[in-house]
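Quick one - inputs below.
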Amino acid sequence: AQSVTQLDSQVPVFEEAPVELRCNYSSSVSVYLFWYVQYPNQGLQLLLKYLSGSTLVKGINGFEAEFNKSQTSFHLRKPSVHISDTAEYFCAVMNSGGYQKVTFGIGTKLQVIP
Amino acid sequence: DTGVSQDPRHKITKRGQNVTFRCDPISEHNRLYWYRQTLGQGPEFLTYFQNEAQLEKSRLLSDRFSAERPKGSFSTLEIQRTEQGDSAMYLCASSPRDRVPQPQHFGDGTRLSIL
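Output:
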């Protein structure tokens, strides 16, 4: 079984300030990790992924995330947010076998304040 | 890459009616997934197809729900005798089968509202 915990349901942040959205996961097998963004009334768009290799992964729109195996975390960061980053962000874990089941967290709403 | 397409975008219906949604995956993707997303939650897995074979179904998929992918291309999700609790966003995703794990690509979803 696998699960994802997003510790913050909402994160308000001023424009041009840095932000970190936290994600912790649990799994009994090797996993792959993803962050998706969802704008209102739209589907999910992939921000970045960790499959293997370097633990620091860079994604679109200036976002990056760091995989920490010992802490089972995959926190998302951006050094300077923009108004257009206001959206909901989902952390997801995919198992390494079978049909590659993906489990999502409940999401974190990022609200960028002008 | 034209993306995953879902139709309709919105559906409003009365309780007890049947509804059907369609998903057209990215053309070269042989894996197709259906998810349900309710307010304040992340997407929850419903079912998975590899080509035309339905290989996995969630316990969330009651006997009122049925999904098909007859020719391994587009897929349909039907809900019979809809209930208030079926109100949600239904998302479709697809991915290619590859030796390297591939992320799923999502459509914009069908929002279902039960009156």
